[in-house]
Design a protein that fits this description.
Elements (H helix, E strand, L loop, with lengths): L3 E6 L6 H14 L4 E5 L5 H11 L7 H25 L3 E5 L2 H11 L4 H12 L6 E6 L2 H11 L11 H17 L4 E5 L4 H12 L5
Parallel strand pairs: 1-3, 1-4, 2-3, 4-5
Helix pairs in contact: 1-8, 2-3, 3-4, 3-5, 4-5, 4-7
The chain binds thymidine-5'-diphosphate.
The site of thymidine-5'-diphosphate has 13 residues, from α4.
């Protein structure tokens, strides 16, 4: 039996964590085997790389940043995602390659194609079966991030232009791959987003 990889994408503040929790609860309710993971993270090496890449006191060049995310991803895929899929589980992954394409490829202006290549190497070409992209306007994002009241990490300190480029890149990726990437309204109520997400993955469910 082969599992399914469902990835959740969107800018910070688009509601990914809420959707992941809702999806997992729904799949469990249907008695389907599911594991939720986040990037960067999920395994020890990737969690440590997460601390490094988010640390505002470190200088991290754009290329180093892209490679750190790719290294964390390589370890997560090899150590956990592939074995889980081979065991027939649904894996709900909070961010995957599209995050690097949007944030490093477009936001850091490294080029989407260059970043796609290092990620092809990192993952051995493992692609998501379905990607749910939470699209959200700048005002809603700002409101949600402000409500969290947490200190900004190194990525969140990047300016508005960075997030504008990353958001536009997500839109372009979604337009280029409509079969894989389903666009959801991140500003809608959580139950509305969840219903749309279930609908978008329905053909993957038994
Ligand atoms: P996190 O706190 O998980 O943010 P979020 O809840 O928005 O996912 O931090 C992950 C940060 O790393 C987030 O700002 C997005 C960024 N990121 C990249 O720039 N490239 C990547 O490939 C990934 C996976 C994350």
């Amino acid at each position: 039996m082969v599992g399914r990889l469902i990835t959740i994408e969107g800018l910070d503040g688009s509601g990914k964590s809420t959707l992941v929790a809702g999806l997992v609860a729904e799949l469990e309710r249907r008695e389907l085997p599911v594991t939720a993971l986040r990037e960067p993270g999920g395994v020890e090496l990737a969690e440590r790389l997460r601390d490094l890449v988010k640390d505002p006191s470190l200088e991290v060049s754009a290329r180093a940043e892209a490679l750190i995310y790719a290294a964390a991803r390589a370890q997560l895929v090899g150590e956990l995602v592939l074995p889980l899929l081979e065991a027939g589980r649904f894996v709900v992954l909070d961010r995957y390659i599209d995050s690097s394409l949007a944030y490093q490829g477009a936001g850091r202006e490294l080029g989407v194609e260059a970043v796609a290549q290092i990620n092809q190497f990192a993952t051995g070409g493992l692609a998501a079966d379905r990607t749910l992209y939470l699209r959200v306007d700048a005002a809603t994002r700002a409101e949600r991030i402000g409500e969290r009241g947490e200190a900004a990490d190194r990525l969140e300190l990047a300016g508005d232009e960075f997030f504008k480029l990353a958001g536009d890149a997500y839109d372009e990726l979604a337009a280029a791959e409509p079969e894989r990437i389903c666009v959801l309204d991140g500003a809608a109520a959580p139950e509305v987003v969840l219903a749309a997400a279930i609908d978008a993955i329905s053909e993957l469910l038994p």
